[in-house]
Write a structure and sequence with these properties.
It is a single chain. The protein is of the alpha/beta class. Strand 6 and strand 7 form a beta hairpin. The strands form 3 sheets. It has a 5-stranded mixed beta sheet with strand order 3-2-1-4-8. A 5-stranded mixed beta sheet has the order 11-10-9-12-13, covered by helices on one side. A 3-stranded antiparallel beta sheet has the order 5-6-7, with no helix packed on it. The chain is built from 10 helices and 13 strands. Helix 7 runs parallel beside helix 8. It folds into 2 domains: about 130 residues, Nucleotidyltransferase, domain 5 (2-Layer Sandwich); about 170 residues, Nucleotidyltransferase, domain 5, CATH 3.30.420.40. It binds zinc ion. The site of zinc ion has 7 residues, from helix 4.
Length: about 325
């Protein structure tokens, strides 16, 4: 059987999958990320996990179609280097050559967002898309773009930072990117939780008050139960998101917008607000033919896309 391995490095967990050429997951695994380790140690760990997955699935190691890695941070796809990854503490690291040496097979490296985008581009809700804008909404907000079905990487690899565009002009919240009130510090996962906690500490009643470890999923649950505070937080979040996205739609006029990432699961709850705000802030002619929907892959987009990445033409 022809298959490749996808590795999705996250700030908390690293996900692994063996994936066939049609995008079907044959086996999967998930381990805590070794975020403060050398690349050698991380890749030795990856090899160990992949070897045991191949063994239990009765498949050969290394994967015949190679391995693909999705990495949070700034990646030079052509060079195969990680220019910066805050989560792993790596700078200017030749990850592709280190990984192919340790894993014993060809490796391709891209950002986690670009890797995730490939899952929908080839096997999911963007399989007929030409120009796709892919928005991953979790801890941060990252975006990917395809032009004529090719992933746009930008010369310096730092494109797609939708989360680091200013969303609130007079915000006191300062982001590590240097901007006050950027989308990430206003509506990223942590921002939503902090906003809810601050309101409740100030005396706002909410069914979320019983939660010891509040998460965006629990805020979404409370909103589904018509909790006024949770609804207010999500309505504000999708309003800011819609206004920021409107500028990208006016600029790029993609045929498809795909939402992925854990926090994007809250969109359907307040979709009416999102649609209304988008319609009032994006030009009608830029919106009329644009399909906006959720990723078909949920939490698996990163690994399925990373496995697809392995099978694409590799930069020399
Ligand atoms: Zn920022």
């Amino acid at each position: 059987m022809k298959f490749s391995a996808g590795i999705d490095f996250g700030g908390t967990f690293t996900k692994f999958a063996l994936v066939d050429l049609e995008g079907n997951i044959v086996d999967r695994d998930k381990t805590p990320s070794l975020t403060r380790s050398s690349a050698q140690d991380v890749l030795l760990h990856v090899r160990g996990v992949l070897e045991s997955m191949c063994m239990r699935s009765h498949l050969p190691y290394p994967p015949p179609e190679g391995c693909g890695i999705g990495m949070p941070g700034v990646v030079d796809y052509e060079a195969g280097t990680v220019k910066m990854s805050g989560a792993f503490g790596w700078t200017d690291l030749p990850l592709r050559s280190i990984a192919s040496q340790i894993l014993g097979c060809p490796v391709a490296v891209d950002t986690d967002v670009n890797a995730g985008m490939l899952a929908d581009l080839y096997f999911g809700n963007a399989s007929n898309a030409s120009e796709m804008l892919y928005v991953s909404w979790g801890t941060g907000l990252g975006a990917g773009l395809t032009i004529a079905r090719q992933v746009y990487h930008s010369r310096f690899g730092a494109m797609g930072n939708l989360g680091h565009t200013r969303a609130v002009a007079d915000s006191p919240r300062l982001c590590f990117c240097g901007i006050r009130g950027c989308l990430e510090v206003e509506i990223g996962a942590r921002a939503l939780v902090e906003k809810a906690q601050a309101e409740m500490a100030a005396g706002r009643p909410s069914i979320m008050a019983v939660q010891r470890n509040l998460t965006p999923e629990l805020i979404a649950q409370a909103a589904t139960s018509q909790d006024a505070l949770a609804l207010e937080i999500l309505r504000r979040a999708v309003t800011l998101l819609a206004h920021t996205l409107a500028a990208s739609l006016a600029m790029l006029n993609p045929d498809t917008v795909i939402f992925a990432g854990g926090v994007s699961n809250c969109l359907p709850i307040v979709r009416d607000v999102f649609d209304r705000e988008l319609a009032s802030s994006a030009p009608t002619f830029a919106l009329s033919n644009t399909s906006i929907q959720a990723s078909a892959f949920g939490q698996s987009a990163g690994v399925v896309g990373a496995a697809k990445l392995a099978t694409l033409r590799r930069p020399a």
